[in-house]
Each structure stands twice: as structure tokens, then as C-alpha cells.
Design a protein that fits this description.
seven-stranded mixed sheet; 12 strands; 24% helix; globular; binds glutamine
Amino acid sequence: MVMKIGVLALQGAFIEHIHMLRQIGVEAVEVRLPEDLEDLDGLIIPGGESTTIGKLAVMYQLMDPLRQFAVDRPVWGTCAGMILMAKAIGMDQPLLSVMDIVVERNAFGRQKDSFQEDLYVKVLKNGDSIPFPGIFIRSPRLVQTRGRAVKIASRADGTAVAAVENKLLATAFHPELTSDTRFHQYFLSLIRQ
Ligand code: GLN
């Protein structure tokens, strides 16, 4: 059976995730309403502006359905999506708080300080030898992991930028803006587990 993955489509870079998922043979749909979550195998929360995505999710009454979804189904947050998944960020804005991580927003500077860096990510296919192109756009960083289930999956200059907690994945950067499908493949492997 073909997997069906939803991408939260309230704001931000959701279309790029949809294209990449379709490219690797997965059914991909936009999620805007609680009922859109019903028959999904996994969900991606894209990059964008976490305050805007959070406010819209509150308005559309998606916060609790999203939290409920994350209890037993895989969720991957990229950039703003990682912020939304965090337990705490030291600021007051709507969070799903489904992952035991503390995150700092805009940890690498402003939009003009966006950068690309080669990342070695063990959990990816050939991740030790073939670097993954990490695209950082006003990205957050992981300042703390809380539960023992949280594993750091990648670092950029010593700073933690990706983590896995059981079936939850968070990346501070944007794999959907590259042509490297390995992170999306890895997410599928979390679903199959
Ligand atoms: N700086 C944004 C925020 O704090 C995240 C940027 C991104 O998703 N590329 O929400």
C-alpha cells in the first residue's frame, strides 16, 4: 500500500515537501483542517514563521488534533516546524510541545545570515560518507534535550541541529529545499518501524 503523508499547509514551505514526497513515490496531501489528519501515516510541519503557523493552528482548532496525532504517529518538523514541536523556547507563543527538546529561535542570526553547511548525519543512508546539504534560513538550534529518548542526529559546528525521539523528528534546516531525498526517505523509515 502506498503511504499517505500530510504536510501542514497553513503557511511556509509546504509545497516543496509535497513535491519531494511525490518524487519518492508517496501520496502527499495538504493539511488545513482536523479531519485532514484522519487517514495519514505521518505528518510534516514545514518551515515558515512559527508564530504565524501557531496562531493559524489555534484559529483552525488544530492544536489538540495535532498533539493527539503525535502521540502514536510519526511527525517531522523542519525549522519553524521544529520550534512548534518543542517543549519550550523561552518565549510565549503557541507550541505543540510534543518533543522533549528546548529550542532557541533564530539562533544563527537574521535572514541575511542564511547559510548552507555540509552535515554528516549517521541515520541517513551513507550519512557518514556523503554529507547532507543543510540549508539554514533563520534557523533555530537545539539548546537542550530532556528525555533520554531524544537522540541528537546532527550538529553544525558543534551546535545540535537535528533530533529524533522515537517516531518524532526535528531538523533546524530545510531538506525540502535540496535535491537530496535522504531525510524524506529516513522519515518514511520511521513510519515503517
Ligand atoms: N525564524 C523562523 C521562526 O522563528 C523559522 C525560519 C524557518 O522556518 N526557516 O519561526
